[in-house]
Design a protein that fits this description.
6-stranded parallel β-sheet; Rossmann fold; 6 strands; alpha/beta
Length: 216
């Protein structure tokens, strides 16, 4: 499982989720991509994750202890946008994808974002002004890309998410080119962090079923 962080999170924050995957026999690889964690000092946020995604999939597939024919990708928040981009770029190599609280079109969410979130995006995108940051936000869209996703896709979302409107989840689930499932938690906040027992074990079982043919 390739694990991707959000706008203001880093790979070290995924330990609890990783443990659920490990308990089900799924190897995990959490990474800081462009604009994330340690990588933010050298690489700005980028909308097109086909390059980073393919590079990461190539690296994982080359590991002798990993079955390169059974790769999955999981992402949370802005990582929930990156994960579908990786799945679209990875083609048949990606056997399952989970998008947790990710936007379909980040620009469409811009006016609803708190000032702190917009400023974090500006800095990590390397934009000199908020206006330029807003322009870059509109490049983070799955329009025209989601249809290339052939792997099974699980979209997890909270209807009370105050950062990303829940309609974004519906757009992603409807636009994918493969099988998709939308798990909408009515009381869920951003990342459904307030309802982890209602989606984390389910997600881990869902992934194990598709990558191993088993659950815990």
């Amino acid at each position: 499982m390739l694990m991707l962080s959000g706008l203001d999170s880093a790979k070290e924050e995924h330990r609890v989720v990783e443990q659920l995957f490990l308990e089900r026999g799924l190897a995990t690889f959490a990474v800081d991509g462009p604009g994330q964690g340690e990588a933010e000092y050298d690489l700005p946020i980028r909308a097109d994750w086909s390059g980073p995604g393919k590079a990461l999939l190539d690296a994982l597939a080359a590991e002798p202890r990993i079955d390169g024919s059974r790769l999955g990708v999981w992402g949370v928040s802005l990582g929930g946008y990156y994960a579908p981009r990786v799945a679209a770029a990875g083609g048949d190599r990606v056997k399952a994808c989970v998008a947790l609280a990710g936007p379909y079109d980040f620009g469409d969410c811009w006016s609803c974002l708190p000032e702190l979130t917009r400023e974090a995006f500006r800095v990590r995108a390397g934009a000199p002004t908020q206006e330029e940051a807003r322009r870059l936000a509109y490049t983070l869209t799955l329009e025209g890309t989601a249809s290339a996703i052939t792997a099974p896709l699980l979209v997890v979302f909270g209807r009370k998410d105050r950062l990303i409107p829940w309609r974004q989840a519906e757009r992603l689930a409807a636009a994918t080119g493969g099988d998709s499932e939308l798990l909408m938690l009515e009381e869920g906040n951003h990342g459904c962090a307030n309802l982890t027992p209602w989606h984390r074990p389910y997600t881990a079982d869902w992934l194990a079923q598709r990558l191993k043919g088993t659950t815990r």
